[in-house]
Write a structure and sequence with these properties.
The protein is an alpha+beta fold. It is built from 3 helices and 2 strands. Strands 1-2 form a two-stranded antiparallel sheet. A hairpin with a 2-residue loop joins strand 1 and strand 2.
């Protein structure tokens, strides 16, 4: 069975990314109050669909910090293509 994309959710994701660079986790935090059953996994799924359709770009940035696994983390920032 193929599930349809929630057009409202996709629209909200693209609107949040308009003119901004955000991680999937940041998007999740912004949208969680509007979509109570939303999961991070679903946000990343919608981002991958948007990437496939050429609606967003992704930039991987290595950031230094104090993480349990070491001194840096690779973060993916998504931006809407206008």
């Amino acid at each position: 069975m193929v599930k349809r994309l929630n057009e409202d959710l996709m629209s909200d994701i693209l609107n949040e990314l308009s003119g901004k660079k955000l991680t999937g986790s940041q998007l999740f935090s912004l949208l969680k109050s509007k979509y109570p059953s939303l999961s991070k996994r679903l946000v990343y799924h919608y981002l991958s669909v948007a990437l496939e359709h050429g609606q967003v770009t992704v930039e991987t940035v290595s950031e230094e910090g104090k993480y349990s696994w070491g001194g840096f983390a690779n973060k993916k920032y998504y931006t809407r293509i206008n």
